[in-house]
From TrEMBL:
<dbReference type="InterPro" id="IPR027417">
    <property type="entry name" value="P-loop_NTPase"/>
</dbReference>
<dbReference type="GO" id="GO:0050700">
    <property type="term" value="F:CARD domain binding"/>
</dbReference>
<dbReference type="GO" id="GO:0005737">
    <property type="term" value="C:cytoplasm"/>
</dbReference>
<dbReference type="GO" id="GO:0043123">
    <property type="term" value="P:positive regulation of canonical NF-kappaB signal transduction"/>
</dbReference>
<protein>
    <recommendedName>
        <fullName>Guanylate kinase-like domain-containing protein</fullName>
    </recommendedName>
</protein>
Amino acid sequence: MRWTVRTVHSEPLGTHCSRKRFCHPSDPKASPRLSRASFLLGQILQFVSRSENKYKRMNSNERVRIVTSKDTRVRTEGHPVTKALLDRFEEFDSVSEINKSFSLIPYSSVRPIHCDRRRPVLFTPTMLSKTFIQKLLNSGGALEFNLCKPDIITKEEFCRRQKTETIIYSREKNPHTHECIFTANIDAVAAKNKHCLLEAGIGCTKDLIKARIYPIVLFIKVSEKNIKKFRKLLPNPLVEDELLRTCRQNEKELEGLPCLYSSLEADAWSSIEDLLRIIKEKVWEEQQKTIWIDEDQL
């Protein structure tokens, strides 16, 4: 895990720096400012090493810091960020002031992917995937979406193909047959220029990406405050507690994804029709975006 340091200041950093001139000395060791900056930077690094901040996967609407791992060296000469930090260092008299004035933002190296073909869609909480898919297809979305139909294969064929192919999703239908989704099933839908709707959980995201299939992950937020909105989507009210538990589990899974996800806030819709409209809009928005893959998470 790599770390960056963000300054917390009520005044824009660029405005603050514009009031001071920065002259790079011919001998950095002779500069009191650089010597003090070096000392304080060491203190910051110690602060970083003691930090227990947990990395959290951001959704695709949040700002993402992109770092290339090919060249981690930073040139100090003429670098605006370095000038800004040196100016800020003069304001601190102790390590405690540094701790109060800086916050840590965890980040990792990511690789950009541009995908022209329609991407498959995964829903979370998984418990509602089947219902969302059925309602999307029944609401006039059949022109844009298609259900990913699994293959039904024998147990023997399942064991054989498991050794040679990537199985995105599998379920034992009975003691003799398995229900499986292969990459070919998803590719067949994409070839029709449609989004493949998957009932599988987000746990298959890594397998999809390894197969160079980049899903759109939609996180529909469920909480005690908005659980009533989902009653029409549940088979009976008794499974509300189960839905909340599943949602919390799925939310933890999101943090381990090698890609970003898109969140649908509870206050963004008032009816099931609104929710379906927003889902379609989100899918379209995500399709236009660059995909960022964290290969360390694969």
